[in-house]
Amino acid sequence: MAATTGVTLELDDIQAGALYERPSPYVGTYLMLRIADRADGRELVRRLHRIVNPAGAADTPDNTSLTVAFTYHGLKALGVPQASLDSFAPEFRQGMAARADVLGDVGESAPDHWEKPLGTDEVHVAIAVLSSDEEQLQAAIEKAHRALTELPGVELIWHQDCYQLATGRTSFGFKDGISQPAVEGSGRRPTNPHERPLKAGEIVLGYPDETGELPPMPTPEVLGRNGTYVVFRKLHTKVAAYRAYLRTRAASREEENLLGAKMVGRWQSGAPLALSPDQDDPELGSDPLRNNDFLFADDPRGFKCPVGAHARRANPRDAFDQDGSVDVRLHRMIRRGTSYGPMLPDGVLEDDGIDRGIVFVFAGAHIKRQFEFVKTQWLNDGIFIGAPLESDPLVGPHDESSGFTIPQRPIRRRLQNLPPFVVTRGGEYCFAPSLRALRWLAELDT
C-alpha cells in the first residue's frame, strides 16, 4: 500500500527531519539556544535556512540532516506578532513544564528536578543534527556552530550527544523504532501492510487529517503551513533497577527474558510477541518486512501479548475496531527514540551512577490528542484496558502499589510493587516551521 495517494505534499518546503526515518545506525547531537537579541536571532534563522534539509531533496551524504524548531518563547524572542503567537495550540504556548501534572511528570520527574535550562523560558531554539557517519556529523555540527559566529545575541545553552546502535537497541536492551506510521503523500510505504497511510494532516499542518478537516494552523498561512509540532523529552532510564526487578521474580534467565518481553510486548531482538509469543526469534526481529506485520484483535485477552504491555499501550492497532470505542488513527504519531549515555554492561545489576537513557522526539499536528492523549490515557492510565490501577510497566509513573498483569492459563500472573524505571530529566514543546516559514521569520521587521 503506497503512501502516495490522495494528496501531494510540498516536500521541498517541509523539513526532512520532521517527516522521514533516521539512518540506522547513527550518531547525533541536540543543541538548545537562547536568543537575547532579536536582530541576531533573525540572522541566525536566515543562516539556518540555508542548511536545513528539505524532505524533497535527494539523500544527503551519509544520511546527514539538520532540523530546527522553536519554542513559544523562541518565536516571541524573534518578534513574531502576538496575534500569530496566540494562534498556536494552547499546549504549545503553555510549554511542557506547565503541563507536568497533566503528563504525570511528578516526584523525581517534576520540572523542579529537570536539567536546567530545560523547561524554562530560556530555551528558544532546538537543533537536531544526525548522521550515519561521525565525520559527516562533525561537519554538520560545525555548520551549525558557524551559524552562531559573530552573533553575540544568540547563546548555546545546552547540548546532548546521542546515538543509535547497529542493533537498534536502547538502554533497556530492546530494539526500538520498529513501528512507524506512513504518511500519505510522503512516498514512504507502511511497515505494517495491514495499516493504510495516515492522512497527511495528522503530521503536517495545512492538509486534511483523519477527521477530513484541516487541523488548526498558526497564522499567517506562510508561518503554519507545512510545519509540525515537535515534542522533545529527555528520559533517564534506571536500567540496573529494571534488571534487578526481573531477576528477583524469575527462576531462570529464560523466564527473566520472557517477563521482560511481556512487559515490553516484544523480545529484545524486536520480534513481537504477537507473532512469536513463546520464544525469541532474532531472524524475525531483524526482518523489517515481517517484524511489524501483525495486529492485536486476534488476541483480545492478551495471552500472546498482554494488553498492558508497553508496545500494545503505545499503539493498540486494531484492538478497538470491534467496539468502535477509540479511533486509534487519531492518536498515531511519528516517534523517534535516541539513546544517550553508555550502555550498562550486560549482567550488571547495580547502578553505576552514570546518566543514560533515551531522548524521545514526537512529530505531529496535534500535541493534545496525539502525544498527550497517548501519555495520559494509554501509558499512565489503565482504564481503557480494564485495569485502572495499572500504568505502563516500563515507562509508567509507578508507586508502591503499581503492578502488571500477565494473562496466562490456568491462572494469570501479576507482578507487584513495580518501581519507576524511567525519570523525566526535561522536555520542551517545539514547532518545526517550513522552509518558507523560516525565511518569513528571518525577514520579520516588527
TrEMBL record:
It comes from Leifsonia kafniensis. Belongs to the DyP-type peroxidase family. It comes from the Bacteria. Residues 60-147 form the DyP dimeric alpha+beta barrel domain. PANTHER family: BLR4509 PROTEIN, DEFERROCHELATASE/PEROXIDASE. Signal peptide: none annotated. The keyword Hydrolase does not apply. Its cofactor is heme b. Keywords: Iron, Metal-binding, Oxidoreductase, Peroxidase. InterPro entries: Dimeric_a/b-barrel, DyP_N, Dyp_peroxidase. This is Dyp-type peroxidase. GO terms for molecular function: peroxidase activity. Pfam families: DyP_N (PF21105).
